[in-house]
Design brief:
The protein is α/β, with parallel strands linked by helices. The strands form two sheets. It has a five-stranded parallel sheet. The chain has a three-stranded antiparallel sheet with strand order 1-3-2. The protein starts with a helix and ends in a 13-residue tail after the last helix. The longest helix is centred in the C-terminal third of the chain and has 37 residues.
Length: 294
């Protein structure tokens, strides 16, 4: 029987010659150097685009968060106050000399008629640092908690926190509220990122319980410390009068303006970076420190 005549019979019977099987397998198997249409289809494209989108978002977030660190006064907070405005608000007035705390002696300019006078030059320097740190925390979308135990300024402090979109605690502060937060408030609770004390003493002139708890939990604090207060546990102490209404109103206005300006600046920087795209964002930053925020 001739091989040409026997080939159709073998194929119809299901018998494949060895040489023909090899040729068929080679033609059916795709070449590794030539990808098929399924490899280049829509199955792998979404994964690639998702990775690129996530990488682009991460790069945008990094640039937005690192932009304020390139400037010493990114939020233009030096223009909010002066030594003269602090003097007019009676920030320099302290307590009687007999009530002086020994750790507050470096911040005292002198005494007049038995009353301590606070050095406003140091107050302005420390207040600038405190406002700058507060603005950076607000810029990074941190939780800020205003704390005070003075009933006279409870409404003022709560209104200040509400106006800038933050929180306030002006009532009795239970000890361990920060250290035992998962037990008292439930699991998964988030602690504040910054505590602002408009008065670091309670109603019986003892250190506020939140000062000690925040120090234990490594939560940064900003506090207005009078001449009868202990500034050791405060991260950013601001020497000043914490009893007079003009001084407390000034501090509330400054912190409210700093937080609001930082949040508005965050929205502005994000919008400008999105408009510039990845190419323009690699170069000069969009924010100009010479122009004030909002």
């Amino acid at each position: 029987m001739a091989p040409a005549r026997a080939l159709p019979r073998l194929l119809s019977a299901g018998v494949w010659p060895r040489s023909l099987r090899l040729r068929v397998l080679q033609t059916a198997t795709p070449s590794p150097t030539r990808p098929s249409s399924r490899t280049l289809g829509s199955a792998a494209a979404p994964a690639l685009s998702q990775s690129e989108d996530s990488g682009g978002k991460a790069g945008l977030q990094d640039r937005v968060l690192s932009e304020p660190l390139k400037h010493s006064d990114f939020f233009n907070l030096k223009e909010l106050f002066s030594v003269r405005s602090l003097f007019d608000a009676r920030v320099h007035l302290g307590h009687k000399t007999g009530c002086r705390h020994r750790f507050m002696e470096p911040y005292i300019f002198g005494s007049r008629l038995g009353q301590d006078i606070i050095d406003l030059e140091q107050t302005a320097e420390h207040l600038q640092l405190a406002l700058n740190f507060t603005a950076h925390v607000a810029y990074r979308k941190g939780i800020i908690l205003f704390v005070s135990r003075n009933r006279q300024f409870s409404h003022l402090i709560e209104s200040t926190a509400r106006d800038c979109g933050e929180y306030a605690h002006t009532r009795y502060f239970k000890g361990g509220l920060l250290t035992n937060a998962p037990l008292l408030l439930g699991p998964g609770v988030r602690l504040p990122d910054l505590l602002i004390f408009l008065n670091t003493l309670n109603n019986v002139f003892e250190p506020h319980a939140a000062v000690r708890d925040a120090a234990k939990m490594n939560i940064p604090t900003v506090g207005v410390v009078d001449t009868n207060c202990n500034p050791c546990l405060i991260t950013y102490p601001v020497p000043g009068n914490d009893d007079s209404p003009p001084s407390v109103q000034l501090f509330c206005r400054l912190f409210r303006t700093a937080i609001s300006r930082a949040k508005a600046k965050r929205q502005q920087v994000e919008a400008l970076y999105r408009l510039q795209g990845p190419e323009g964002a690699e170069g000069r930053g969009p924010a100009d420190p010479s122009t004030p925020g909002t």
